[in-house]
Amino acid sequence: MADRALTQYVTDLGGYSSEYGSSDTMSYVVRNILHEPKSYPRYGDFTSSCVFRTYGQWWKIAPEYQMPLLNSSSQYFTTDDFVEVILNRNVYIRNVNIFETYNPGAIVRILALNQNIMNKFSRRWFVLWESKGGVPLKVEQKSSRIFRPPIKPPPFPSKVLRIEFVHDELDYYTELDAVQIVGVTDVDVDQENVSSSPSHELMECFNRKLSLSTSSSSDNGLFDLLPGEILFAILGYLSVDELSVLAMVSYLFYESCYSSLLKVHQHLNLQPYWHRISESSLEGFTKKCKNLSSLNLSWCGVYNNFFESNLLLRLLEPGTLTRLDLACCPLSDRMFKEMLSLCLALKELNISSTKSYLSSGSLQMISTLPQLARLNLFLTSITTSCAIDITRNCTLLESINLGSCFAICSFDEVLTSIANHCHSIKHLDLWRARSLTSVGLKQLAMKARHLESLDIGWCTKVLADEGAVIELVSQCHSLKKLFLTAIRSITDRELQQLSCNCALLEQLDLLGSEGVSVDGVKTLLSRCRRMLFLDLSFCPGITRDDCASLQSLYPDCSMKQSVAN
Of the N and C termini of the chain, which has fewer Cβ atoms inside 10 Å? Predict the structure, then answer.
C-alpha cells in the first residue's frame, strides 16, 4: 500500500514544566504553541508566543537556586524545560518542524511516545533527535527560523511528542510559534520488533538474579585484593545505569553495586531517566536504598503507573529522607499524602507544576513537616488558607516559591503570616501574585530583614507611589536579587533607595518601568558594584542606544533589552 503523507500542527498540550504567562490570558503561555504559526516569519518578542519561565544562567547563580543532586547520574542531564504536544491523528513521524521566532537554539531533544506498547519491559519513549552531549546547537543569526532536525523515524505511529530545552546559552527568552509534524499513515512495520530489549531498560538487570551464589568460586582478579573502601570510591563515579550493567559481571560486583553505602543510593536522582523509569524499576531500588537521604523523581511517572505502586512507599519507609523532588509528577492526592506521612524529617520539598494533579486539600499535609526549610509550590493549586497553615507550622522556612499560584486570593494575608512566623525567610518568589498589594509588601518589609531574593514580577497591584518598595529596600539590606518586572510605577526614587541601601544587589529586573531614566540607572550602577544582571526591556525612558552606552560603561553587568516585534 502506498504511503499517505499527512501534515499536522499540534492541537493539544500534555504536560509542561513552566511558563512565563498566566493561565487566564493568552500572553506568553505555553498553549500558544498550538495550531498554525501566528507570528512567523517575523522576529521579535510576541505575546502570542510560547515562552518558558527562565533563560540564560542567571537563575542558576541566583541566591535562591536549589542545586540539583550532583552525582554521576545527572552529569549528562542538562534539560531545563519541556513541553508535551499532541496531534489529532497517529502517524509514522517523518519530519518535525518547530517555528522559533525569538532567540532560537534552546532545543536539545525530541521524543515520541509509543502508546501501543503492552510489554512492561519495553520503552514507551523513542528519541527522535538529540543534540550531542545535551548541548544546544549554536545559532548565530538573530532571526526567526524553522528548526528541522534530522530525526530517526520511529517504527510505530504516534501522536504525542515531547520537546526538551536547555536555556544556558540564551541571551534572552526563547519564543516558539508552532510545531508541525509530517508523517505517513500506513507503513509496513513488524510491531513485534518495536519493543526494545529488556536488558536496555534502566533497572531491569538489577531485578534479575545472578546465577552466581556465595559458595561458588569466582575469579575477580585483583579486585579481590582491593579494600572495600577503594572499590566503593571507584563505583562512586558510575551512574545508576552503569552500575546496573556492572552488577552482572560477578558476585563481587553484584554485592558492591547493591550496597546501600554507595552515595548514588543515598542521594538518588532518577530525573535523568524519566523516560525509562517504571514501576518494575522500583524493586531493585528498595533493596539498595536503605539509607536514602535525597530523592529526585521529577518528571517521572507520565503515561505509566509508577506513582500507583506501593513499592514507592517501601522506598520511603526508613524515614531518613530530607529532600524530595516531585516536579511535574502525576501524583494522586492519596499517594502524595502517604508519601509525606513517611517523610516527616523533610527539609526540602519541590512539587512545582503539579497543579493538574494535586488538590489544595492534599497540599495541607505539608504543614505537618516541622523541619521544612525549602518549599517550591510554583504552579500548584495551593489556596490562601493552606498557605497560611503551612507558614504558621513550618516556621523554619527559608525559601518559598509561590509563583503562579493563582488559587491564592489574598497574598497580603499570606505575606503577613510569613512575616510573623517565618523569621528566617531569605528567598521569596511571588511571580504573578495578582492579589498582592503594598499592604502585604510593607508587612514583609517590617520583619523579613534577612531577605536575599524577592521576585514580585507582574504583581500589578503593587503601586510604587504608595511607598512599599522604598520601605522594603530601606529595611532589607541583604538583597542580592530583586525582580520588579512589569511594576510600571517604578521611578528613579526607588533606584535611589536601592543604590543607598542594597550594595550587595546582583540581579535587578526593571522591565516595563515607566519612570526610570538613564541617570537613575547610572547612579544605581555606580553604587551597586556587584550588579551582574539588569533588565531594562520596555522602559520608555531608555533607548537601545542608551542601553548600549550603559553596557560599555559597566561591562561586568549584563544589560537586557528585549526586541519588540
Answer: N
Query: Residue 492 phi/psi, 5° resolution?
Result: -65, -20
Whether pTM > 0.70 for this model: the answer is yes
Q: Which three cell numbers stand for residue 368?
A: 505537618
Domains identified in the chain, total number: 2
Question: Which range (134-148, 164-178, 490-504) has the least confidence?
Answer: 134-148
Region for 335 from its dihedrals, namely left if φ exceeds 0, alpha if ψ lies in -120 to 50, beta otherwise: alpha
Q: What is the DSSP string of 244-308?
A: HHHTTT-HHHHHHHT-TTSGGGTEEE-GGGTTT--GGGHHHHHHH-SS--EEE-TTTTTTSSGGG
Question: What are 92's three cell numbers?
Answer: 509514522
Tens-place pLDDT, residues 3-22: 678 999 999 999 999 999 99
Host domain of residue 332: 321-560
The alpha helices in 84-227, defined as continuous H runs, are: 204-207
In a domain, 345, yes or no: yes
Task: Report if residue 230 sits inside a domain.
Answer: no
Q: Is the pLDDT of residue 205 over 60?
A: no
The per-residue pLDDT for range 411-465, each reduced to its tens digit, is 999 999 999 999 999 999 999 999 999 999 999 999 999 999 999 999 999 999 9
